[in-house]
Amino acid sequence: MRRITPTPKGRLAVEQYEHSQVTDAVADVGPFLHAVRAQAETEDKLNWAGVRLVCRRFGVTGSPRASPRGIMLGPLLAAVPDDKEALVMATIRALIESGYLTATGVLGLNGLPAELGLTDRARTVLDG
């Protein structure tokens, strides 16, 4: 019988997969959801004022599912009302494309990284 030795990337994928199966948040997602509601009420949903609120709450929320590398997207999306999910996904996609969020793992979820983190660029803008 042959033994299979997992690589570090394989271990990471397994760990991420296990985290992705839990949809209960371990942090308070209330401030994030409040920011999403405020963003949804703006005329231009993806303008910087609305997106900045979400990005700031994203960073403050910490990890809705405990992870040393970033924020798990699954529990965050599970907390978002169905009518706001598309807006949140579009916002996260825009923040990734603009260099404010980055993938911190190897798995994907609904076309986005399953685990995300703030970049130095985001921290500079949000702290300044």
Explain this structure to me?
This protein is mainly alpha-helical. It has one domain: Arc Repressor Mutant, subunit A (Orthogonal Bundle). The protein has 6 helices and 5 strands. The strands form 2 sheets. The chain has a 3-stranded antiparallel sheet. Strands 3-4 form a two-stranded antiparallel sheet. Strand 3 and strand 4 form a beta hairpin. The radius of gyration is 15 Å and the shape is elongated. About 5% of the residues have low confidence.
What distinguishing features does this structure have?
elongated, 128 residues
Number of helices: 6
Q: Give the biggest sheet.
A: 3 strands, antiparallel
Our count of domains comes out at 1
Note the overall shape.
elongated
| Count of beta strands | 5
**Helical proportion, percent range:** 40-55%
The fraction of residues assigned to DSSP E strands is 5-15%
Radius of gyration, Cα only, in angstroms? 15 Å
Mean pLDDT across all amino acids: 78
CATH topology: Arc Repressor Mutant, subunit A
